[in-house]
Amino acid sequence: MSAASNCRLIGCWWIVEADLWDRDYLNLIEPATITIRANGHGEIAFGAMQAGLDLAYSTSMVSFTWAGCDEMGEVSGDGHAELLDSGSIEITFAYHNGDEAILKAKRETSSTAC
């Protein structure tokens, strides 16, 4: 994958849907978000899970490995996010040796940063 300078996914996104969890669970502790930065790192938080991302970029997709905590236990995995024609992103999020979820996110457009 290429450098982040051409990546259209850089920014903060609100996670609004998941195939495994309902919206109440996604926003359990704080609003569910994924932040994609141009410096090779980002964050994701939903439910009781918070994790840091190590990113690789293309124009309309990022792939990542992640590590963090979920209900006070260490968790890790990998995934990718792809820009859809609608302007939203679809995130494939996999726990190491565990669940794989499909999340949908919309770009954060308010003045309140993620």
Features:
single chain, 114 residues, eight-stranded antiparallel beta barrel, 4% helix, 8 strands, 1 helix, mainly beta, Lipocalin
Explain what this protein looks like in three dimensions.
This protein has a single domain (4-107), classed as Lipocalin. The protein is mostly beta strands and 114 residues long. The chain has one helix spanning 23-26, and strands at 11-18, 33-36, 41-46, 49-57, 61-70, 73-83, 89-95, 100-107. It is built from 1 helix and 8 strands, in the order E-H-E-E-E-E-E-E-E. An 8-stranded antiparallel barrel has the order 1-2-3-4-5-6-7-8.
- The number of E-state strands comes to 8
| Distance between the amino and carboxyl termini | 26 Å
- Oligomeric assembly: single chain
The major beta sheet can be summarized as: 8 strands, antiparallel, barrel
| Element string (H = helix, E = strand) | EHEEEEEEE
Q: Helix segment count?
A: 1
Give the strand content.
over 45%
pLDDT averaged over residues: 93
Q: Structural class of the secondary elements?
A: mainly beta
Keywords: Plasmid
